[in-house]
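To: structure desk
From: M.T.
Subject: fold request, one chain
Message: Could you run this one when you get a chance? Sequence is below, nothing fancy, just the single chain.
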Amino acid sequence: GINAEYGMLKNEPSRAFYGPLQCLAANEQEAIDTLMVTDSLFRSSDLPTRKRYVQLVENVKGYGGTVHIFSSLHVSGEKLSLLTGVAALLRFPMPELEDMIVDSSSDED
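Reply: Done. Structure tokens follow.
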């Protein structure tokens, strides 16, 4: 369930990625093992955004990954929305993606 996934995101930071840029880049390498998306991205009024996430989900399912879609009204979805609405657990670490982090928010709790 969601808590197991959140646990893995915390415990396997080298395989956990947040945000569209990194998730899309990982998807290009067919590296996503588990994709987590909030349903609000699928209801986005911005058509290109909506299409991008529909495509991402199709791709991940296509190469055997797991997709979890969370309601943004649900607690787990709210948590995910705070993390940009999309997160992925990779099949293998991709250190090159860690350099893609564009926002300046710090990771410190």
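Reply (cont.): The longest helix spans residues 47-62. Let me know if you need anything else for the meeting.
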